[in-house]
Amino acid sequence: MYLLFSIICSTLIFVIFKLLRQYNISTLQVIAINYFVACTIGISAFNGELTLNNTLKSDWFLGAVFLGFLFISIFFVMAKTAQKNGVSVASVASKMSVVIPIIFGIYVYNESTGVQKIIGIILALSAVYLTSVKSSSEIHFKKNLLLPIILFLGSGTIDTSIKYIETTSVPNDGIPIFSASIFGVAAILGLLILLLKNEYKITLKALIGGVLLGIVNYGSIYFLLKALDHELFESSTLFTVNHVAIVMLSTLVGLIAFKEQLSKKNWIGIGLAIIAIILVTLA
Prior knowledge:
By secondary structure, the protein is mainly α. The protein has one domain. It is built from twelve helices and no strands. Helix 4 runs antiparallel to helix 8 (146-168). The longest helix has 26 residues, at 204-229.
């Protein structure tokens, strides 16, 4: 259930970003507000004793600061990649990064590998590529190659770091405040960027969008951490299913809700995604 909720929340992030473009709402303002909202939810959900001193001395705090920087930095890299290389390249680079936490889980945590699981992972990566590539998008992998590489490595580092820090430093009851700290750091950076870009006059639409995005954004991380904390799935299995399901569900939502056109490649990708999820989960 935690994994399912994480997938749904991550897909809703996609929906909200689509609506921002449709209603011409400042993405930067919404992003900044969203981090403050997500941080507030995490603090409210924490049941333990909360003091600044305890938080700063927590084993996971520096990791949360690192992830907060990564969160907002990779978002801007993703935006630049979409502008310079095309939306498809940005989508492929960020989603194909799932290979990094998969390899990390197998080698560092000695997670299982078998023929069925390996085939499932290969099909999953193929599904991510085929589902993400839109026929109407211009794809320039060789042009401005540095941006897709940074996006690939950054996105993979975020997933890998979340798993590692959660495993080594975060207690079971500390997930809300750990999540809140990540979003808090990102919120401070987002505010500084708003001030530098002189976009601090928040509109009502941006405020509503930021609140909605903050709720689902917090949910996507909180439920992912809860799923990683569960013993049912290995991290390599969980990240594979999570990424592929998000890409598949987002594509289907785009088809149904936003009347997007899907190519034969996209449909093949959706089919491979379903097969990959079944193979990896049963393995």
